[in-house]
Amino acid sequence: MSEFPVHPVPAEFAANAHITREKYDAMYQRSISEPEAFWAEQANEFLDWQKPFTQVKSFDFHKGTAEWFADGTLNVSVNCIDRHLPARADQTAIIWEGDDPNDDKKITYSQLSSEVNKLANVLKARGVKKGDRVCIYMPMIVEATYAMLACTRIGAVHSIVFGGFSPEALKDRILDSDCQTLITADEGVRGGKSVPLKVNADKALASCPNVHTCLVVERTGGDIAWTEGRDVWYHEAVADVSEQCEPEEMAAEDPMFILYTSGSTGKPKGVLHTTAGYLLQAAMTHKYTFDYQEGDVYWCTADVGWVTGHSYIVYGPLANGAITLMFEGVPTYPTASRCWDVVDKHQVNTFYTAPTAIRALMGAGDELVTNTSRKSLKLLGTVGEPINPEAWEWYYRVVGDSRCPIVDTWWQTETGAHMLTPLPGATDLKPGSATLPFFGVEPVILDAEGKEVEGACEGSLAIKSSWPSQIRSVYGDHQRCVDTYYSTYPGYYFTGDGARRDEDGYYWITGRVDDVLNVSGHRMGTAEVESALVLHADIAEAAVVGYPHDIKGQGIYCYVTPMAGVEPTDELKKALVALCVQEIGPIAKPDLIQWAPGLPKTRSGKIMRRILRKVAANELENLGDTSTLADPSVVDQLIENRLNR
Ligand code: 6R9
Question: Does 418 contact ligand 1 (Cβ within 6 A)?
């Protein structure tokens, strides 16, 4: 670490920051020693309640249950819109930047209010009630935000499916949570190309008989098919409905949204979040992690299809009455200076993105950055995967002109909001470290026996007690929630990540310790890719591992065993790639496929992925113990085939 020095908090930053070092220490201390009082204060400061709560928290990590502010009531859309109207009706809520650099618009809080209320009325008129699930499959357009907030207004539970997912993946998610309404667009636009959302939706809906309504936003005017009765144009539906819709009074623990995410086994799980705790921690972290100040223009480049888009494009910023920038396009279109052009155009103060984007832009050369001003920037952030210190230093020096602190935020779909993160006015930065816990978060490092280790150490990262925005369940399968998160280390929430803690108490995430890949910051279960590969009639077996990839962080490496007598050809490889894209989506495209006449298995038939990972990473000297393999000669064959792949 010595080659990457510590970056102390800039004095000018600390002078105006919400949270200084002293304040962090005192508040963190109190959040742990008097959690009830601490969280009660925060919940009253950050949220407007319809009926105040008297209970703060209760949880049982053996049963995987948690409740926060359980007897209070509130409405998310009121907190994100209505309460801001007296002071901010004409203030911009959303700056939308289109894929085309000439395309942008600003939506004020008052416009947001009328659009959300109208859509809420449309949903109601189509029979959507409190507790019903609504699937959102949208490009990055403002209507996606309206759709989310309209659901919260009437108490419907949204389930957003990333627009890059395939019809097959969309269908699985719609069916799993029995969504009966879908909101989509005719087409999306990304990097100058159109994305056939309605075509995909039609394919998915062919197997979803319960979907009675498909609301379609006209984004491009492209040619699409139409199912009378089910399909409804968004612009026609909202044309003559009231701009007022009474908000549904929600209990703090009423479900708010479901978001599917990959685990080490089986199909993706529907992570369930509830109302008050989620909104509180999203708002609080947005304010403190990004040191959000009145009037700041804040830009998170995520897609609303991921949790980062939920918490840090929509709910956190809007709960705080902030100005949030929503970007339809990609960082490299029309050129790799797009992000910095947008920063200058909209005078962005905070820029929050993924390490994979930083590495890709770093590869495009410094000039594309240094040709732009970026004077408006005050703070930079990263999320989604570990950032290598080299990329961190480049981001700091070239993008931030060595002026802007970088917040490396560690969290998960399941945690709902930041868990380990610097607070820029309080925390000295170490490149590559997510630094210290947020208020109320109690991380621990466990050894192989599940015992807490003190001081500087490395092991599995777990969380010792409940936090407000934590996962409440896996939709429709609470046992799966318990099995996945609470059974590995009884009494703890297990993150699936490994971490190191240094002598200053700083955390360094070392990556997943389970069979989950992180490809360009997107989570994917190796099992999902394997299931797609073996759907091919010529394939007997497949094993998928991650391997180090310069830009994506991890690439997808597939070992595939063809059926006896099948010729392993390049055509077959192409068909397998296409199959993964079809079943999951372009993000699941294999980077490398290697033919494997046999896979390394233990005598009980378990694939030894450790060996497959080493071969993929070309760490051949150190394969570890292979004596428990049923047939150790398989390994030599794998190494030989690696050279010919
Ligand atoms: C927010 C989000 C969660 C997994 C997580 C970890 C990795 C996220 C990170 C990070 C190192 C960071 N991860 N942030 N690793 N440093 N700052 O990404 O949610 O899609 O559920 O992924 O991503 O492995 O367990 P999600």
Answer: no
Q: Take residue 477 and report the two structure tokens written for it.
A: 């399968």
CA–CA separation, 342 vs 25, rounded Å?
36
Residue 606 — very low, low, confident or very high, per pLDDT cuts 50/70/90? confident
CA of 527 to the centre of ligand 1 (A): 19
How many whole angstroms from its chain centre is CA 195? Answer: 21
Cα of 256 from ligand 1 centre, angstroms? 22
For ligand 1, whether the C-beta of 386 sits within 6 Å is: yes
Q: Which residue, judged by its Cα, is nearest atom 5 of ligand 1?
A: 412
pLDDT digits over 222-261, tens only?
999 999 999 999 999 999 999 999 999 999 999 999 999 9
Q: What is the DSSP letter of 335?
A: -
Average pLDDT value for the chain: 96
Rounded to two decimals, the ipTM of the complex is 1.00
Task: Give the mean pLDDT of 374-396.
Answer: 96
Token pair belonging to 573: 């490889």
Residue of 320, 517, 325, 285 whose CA lies nearest to 409: 285
The helix (H) or strand (E) run that includes residue 343 is: helix 338-346
pLDDT of 644 over the 80 cut: no
With a cut of 50, say whether residue 2 has pLDDT above it.
no
Phi and psi at residue 66, in whole multiples of 5°?
-155, 140
pLDDT at 1 over 90: no
How would DSSP label each residue in 259-303? EEE--SSSSPEEEEEEHHHHHHHHHHHHHHHTT--TT-EEEE---
Phi/psi of residue 275, each to 5°? Answer: -75, -65
What pLDDT is attached to residue 16? 96
> What does the DSSP 8-state code read for residue 587?
G
**Which percentage of the chain shows pLDDT scores above 70?**
100
Q: Which residues of 163-199 are buried (b: 16+ CB within 10 A; e: fewer)?
A: bbbbbbbbbbbbebbebbbbbbbbbbbbeeeebebbb
Q: Give the mean pLDDT of 465-474.
A: 98
Per the listing, tokens 């996962």 go with 471
pLDDT tier at 3 (50, 70, 90 boundaries)? Answer: low
Return the percent helix, strand and coil in the chain, to nearest 5.
35, 25, 45
Write out pLDDT tens, residues 530-539: 999 999 999 9
Most ligand 1 atoms within 8 A of CB, residue of 407, 509, 514, 520 to mutate: 509
Answer for the pair 616, 565: CB distance below 8 angstroms, yes or no: no
DSSP states of 153-177: HHTPEEEE--TTS-HHHHHHHHHHT
User: Percent of the chain scored above 90 by pLDDT?
Assistant: 94
Instruction: Say which residues have a Cβ less than 8 Å from residue 386's Cβ, sequence separation at least 6.
Output: 355, 432, 508, 509, 510, 511, 553
Does the C-beta of 408 come closer than 6 Å to ligand 1? yes
Task: Tell me the three state secondary structure of residue 543.
Answer: strand
| Residues 6 or more apart in contact with residue 26 via CB below 8 angstroms | none
Residue nearest (by alpha carbon) to ligand 1 atom 12: 410
Q: Token digits for 367?
A: 């000039």
Give the pLDDT band of residue 642 (cuts 50, 70, 90): confident
**How many whole angstroms separate alpha carbon 556 and alpha carbon 520?**
11
pLDDT over threshold 50, residue 58: yes
Q: Are 277 and 269 in contact (CB under 8 A)?
A: no
Greatest CA separation for the chain: 73
Residue 493's identity, in one-letter code, is Y
